[in-house]
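Appendix B, record 7
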Amino acid sequence: MRRTERRCPTVTRSLLLALCLAGIAAGCSRPAPAPAFVDYRDAEAGFSLRHPAGWQRQSASGAGEVRFVPPGAESRAEFLAVFTVPSEGGRNESSIRRIVFALLPIHGVSGFQQDPRTTEEMLWFKFEVTGSSGGVEWASVGLAAAGAARTQVAVCAKPLARWRDGQRQCDEIIRSFRPGPIGGP
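Structure tokens (predicted):
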């Protein structure tokens, strides 16, 4: 009987130790949580979207551009940009393509298609393009919304080497994009 009494505390301690180690191992194997997103509404252009918390609004390179970058971004290949430009040549796919391709240093197009949200008042196009900035290649997803007066284009880009991991974040950002008033004067 005494042997059984001695083994119980040892078995109990061993069982508790195993459970603790299993809990620690399970905690270590979980992926890091995705960065929190914050809502942003641009007072001037009227668009809204969600971007990763901590991303900073940067001085835009041109009029009608709002740009966000991650903190400490050393490369110009990771960014979120929204452009507001006059609608040119009517609202059709070719004029929207011209606008998109004029905004960024684009090298390749892997997709450019009309979005189901298209109405008579507003054309929507989703696209996937590659380009380069500061000598670093990037991949991106974007959305263009064209009204009678203005077109707004939202683009989320990540360095090409990190695109597989970054595409999900970019998709979420672009899904959240809502254009401002672009229909008339």
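Remarks on this record: Helices lie at 2-29, 93-103, 163-176. The chain has two domains: 1-30, 37-176.
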